Amino acid sequence: MEHSVPSTRAERQPAGRPAPRDVLELLKPITWFPPMWAFMCGAVSSGAGLEGRWWFVAGGVLLAGPLVCGTSQAVNDWFDRHVDAINEPDRPIPSGRIPGRWGLYIAIICTLISAAVGWLLGPLVFLAALVGLAFAWGYSAPPFRFKTSGWTGPAVVGFTYEGLSWFTGATVMLGALPKPEVLIVLALYSLGAHGIMTLNDFKAVEGDRATGLKSLPVTMGVSGAARFACMTMALAQVAVIVLLALWGLTYSALIVAGVLAAQIAAMPRLLRDPKLYAPWYNGVGVTLYVLGMLGAAFGLGGYF
Fold it and tell me: What share of the chain is helix, strand, coil (3-state, %, to 5)?
């Protein structure tokens, strides 16, 4: 008597609890850097000293990166498991290394832990954490599923990864709302991050087309989306430079201008073949972008 051979890797995986290494891969530690960096920028921009606030800073970094960002990754992978089966079948859920409904359970557990940590850090941080968690679920989960739109999805991610994390960092340090200049700059960097998130969509064009996701590389074409992403990132930084100069923060304005010039110098290579060079530009151009964020934060915090 012949026995059938499982047709997929997922079918070959035994049922049970996922291995810790696979849970860590699901939470994607490499994605924690942007919100943790933005949190640091917020802390610096507050101008407050660290005396007596080390625990708050540590808790805020944990909240921005491993918790809220990690939650968003688990939620996204659970609700995108069918898309990932096309684009990246070796991911933990479609490969079967996170079996059954464990992807959903992990997302729920991380949500509850994130809310609890936010509560311990104070009412404003708790509110920011709830907003971030709501967007984390709304981005990927029905009925909102913001990611199906190439306009709304990147805006939501840019707002939560950059703006909300920056806001949380400043709030943790001050125990109050940051000054208006900080709010304006974090809003501009959030808008510019729309371009960063658009570049991230280039790797999934085929799967997005197949499943009806209207990312900008799908709706505008890869070349058009790349030009839009570059323009969005650049214009946001131009606005920051002008405002910093008007506020008398000359050194910060020069730093942001310098990193913007370097980004512009790197853009022609990206535009020659956006799909091929998007990962390269994410390493070069985005690094310069976030360095400019820190330069602006130092000026806003009164360090120079």
Answer: 80, 0, 20
pTM of the model: 0.88
pLDDT at residue number 15: 58
Q: What is the mean pLDDT of residues 158-182?
A: 94
Please give the Cα distance from 79 to 107 (Å, whole number). Answer: 11
pLDDT of residue 16: 79
- Report residue 156 as tokens: 């939501």
Query: What pairs with residue 149 in β-bridges?
Result: 214
Instruction: Give the tokens for residue 131.
Output: 């907003």
pLDDT digits (tens, 9 = 90+) for 173-183: 998 999 999 99
By three-state DSSP, how is residue 2 classified?
Answer: coil
Q: What is the chain's alpha carbon radius of gyration, rounded to the nearest angstrom?
A: 20
Tokens of 199: 């570049």
**Distance, CA of 194 to CA of 282 (rounded, Å):** 13
The contacts found for 203-207 with CB under 8 angstroms, 24 or more apart, are 203/87, 203/278, 203/279, 204/83, 204/87, 205/275, 206/86, 206/87, 207/83, 207/84, 207/86, 207/87
**Which residues on neighbouring strands pair with residue 214, listed in sequence order?**
149
